[in-house]
Amino acid sequence: MKWRTPHFFFAAVWLALLSLPVVPGAFASGSNVQLSIAFSPGGALDAVARTLAREAEKELGAKVIVQNVPGGGGMTGVARLAQSKPDGSRLTACVTNALIFIPFRNNAPYDPLKDVEPLLVFGQASPVLVTRPDAPWKDMDAFLAATREKGGDMRIGVPGLGTPSHIALAVMAANDPSLKWRFVPFGGPGEAEAALLGGHLDAAASGALPRIKNGQLLPLMVLAGTNLPALPNVPSLTDKGFSDPGRGDSSFILLAPAKTPEKTLEKISRAFEKAAESEAYRKTLEGFSVAPVLKNRQEAREFLSQAWQEEGNILKAAGIADMPAASPKKGTAGAILPKEE
User: Domains in the chain, ordered, with CATH?
Assistant: First the structure.
């Protein structure tokens, strides 16, 4: 006698298969995770994020493919992420100005508190204002004196408008009417440094400590409220009597699209948290003016929420609430902005 399998048996098996948990696309066999860095190559964010990606691969069991997506002070990279499929296959590393200052001032194509999910804060930028070694000003006092003498003709390269270095310098100018600069936005600090060394700028915001230490760049001031241990003789904003505009816009952060499954978020965040414990991560930080500040998922979410609430008061108090917040899609040395009044 031949046994016949009832149709309802096949139906039961099919339903059981459908009920099995789906493996996210990012971690399926042979698949990759794509990490977009919302700045051009050569800066601190680029170097640190690439190091974390290499280390995180060991825990993820997947290859992390890194690409640079500069533009809009980080807005371009975050906007692309917000439109990505929430399956863990797309991540973005940016500076928190793209989530605070820029959308606060711009009609950004994303809601920074709803359309992306913070996974990890992995550094605190303390950019340095630098000039060429052959510049006529050898310290910050001389640079400020030249600024006042030239009456608005001094050009400073910044890695996008609304970035931490731009905000710090804009706050300085807002609080001291004798300081007028022409800000030149770029896709990242590497581009600004190249324009400076090429003679297109008078100063630039940088985070490249090796170039400073080997004499390629001359440091003038740390654009943060505290000194850098690696540059003990370089004054900070506080040392020169200027206020620190706050750190809500200057943290490095890893993001996933909103609505990514919880298990996927946990797997990714754990992998990158472990990567941030590595010696490779600490070694990379030593080459840039970045403090090793780490915040997990919950801490990062709370940090962003608080920074967003405080941003308006900071900008209004500094008198720069109406300042443009984003740079062109691709910065060039010729993209001189109108003089700040």
Answer: 25-126+248-318 (3.40.190.150)
